[in-house]
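[Automated response] Your request has been received and processed.

Submitted sequence:
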Amino acid sequence: MKKHHKWIIGGASTTVLVYIIVSAILLNGVIIKQQLDHTGVLREINNIKTSQTETQSKLGELTENLIETQKSIDFLDESLNLKLKQIKASTSEDFSGIIENSLESVVTVRTDIGQGTGFIITNKGFIVTNAHVLSGGRELYVLDYEQNKHPTDLIGYNLTFDLALLKISGNYHFLEIGDSDDIQIGEKVIAIGNPLGLQFSVSEGIVSAVNREGTNGIDAYIQTDAALNPGNSGGPLINKEGKVIGINNFKIGGGDNLGFALESNYIREVINQISQKEYKIDLIE
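Generated structure:
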């Protein structure tokens, strides 16, 4: 072969080789670019997924916060309504707001030989009454404000302070036990009970004295001029805040407006002693 023919063939081969190399480089560049683009797309997808997860998590947190906020608002509304009723009772001539809240937590306690009053102290149906209301009875049941009859268990009693703890099934509104150390002579109170069989009667009066001596010889009684009659025994003595400051216990025979109620701090102590013995818990805070 002649020399210039070899040169032409060699030049053509070189050109083809260069073309192949350039093509390979360009193709590799395209592949690398596609891989980079693919990696970028995957990264963006992961970022989007992460963002979606974070968004869903934040939405979940926001939903929980909204639910808690609504609960707080509902609680505040309920508390505000109660406070408004308490204010109404304390600033007006009557206790209508307090009575409305309290009546459904008062019960009639009946045996086969008599009856008295009691009041619910927890939402689980625990009831406080006077022990003498149950004296001599062989049957025991409770009537609530709606006149529903409830089988009733006697949990325990204390004869020294004339207190008994009862239990009925169900969930109920209850009365809060106040601090009898805060009682002021002259403050207004109401007594709720079943005097002479007249169920859920309300009488109003004032605190005439505190730390009066009872039939047990203990200075543990509130003197009040709120009318108390047979059937009031075991009922609550309630202050203008709607709290129980005493349990109506007895009156001096022949004396007008001389009623006595065991102070609430003694109620708390004795009932918690009974509940600790039976349930290992304090029922009243």
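Summary generated for your ticket: The chain has three helices and 13 strands. The mean pLDDT is 83.
If you did not submit this request, please reply to this message.
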